[in-house]
Amino acid sequence: MLDVARYAVNTSKNNAAVASSVHCAINAIDALAVFYFGRRHAGGHEEALDAIRGAFDENEFRDMAKQFSGLIGLKNEAEYQPDLMKASQASDALRRASRILSKVRQKLP
């Protein structure tokens, strides 16, 4: 999903970049939850971080929450609203998803 988001940013497909970035983060969080706790989050995306709280120290978790909340804030706008996302929003979403994925990868073997 992150590769798709990068491609979308580079080709000015801003809505696709944001949506792919959001789903990259959601999928990464689900993977970490399954690895550490044997289950993925089944509720709304906004609460997905609760499923991985114990996998990070408090500072790491706060940074993850900051990145994730910024992404989730763009999800509905990118996927369901008629207005197109801006290039700056797409780049920001990609940056946030990259940070989340990097932190998740550090916690997996």
Structure, described:
With 109 residues, the chain is an all-alpha fold. The chain has a single domain (2-107), classed as Four Helix Bundle (Hemerythrin (Met), subunit A) (Up-down Bundle), CATH 1.20.120. Helix content is 71%, strand content 0%. The chain is built from four helices and no strands. The model has no long low-confidence stretch (mean pLDDT 90).
Distinctive features:
109 residues; Four Helix Bundle (Hemerythrin (Met), subunit A); 4 helices; 71% helix; globular
Give the SSE map:
Elements: H1 2-10, H2 14-37, H3 58-80, H4 87-107
Helix pairs in contact: 1-2, 1-4, 2-3, 2-4, 3-4
CATH topology: Four Helix Bundle (Hemerythrin (Met), subunit A)
Count the beta strands.
0
Query: How many domains make up the 3D coordinates?
Result: 1
The CATH class is: Mainly Alpha
Biggest sheet statistics: none
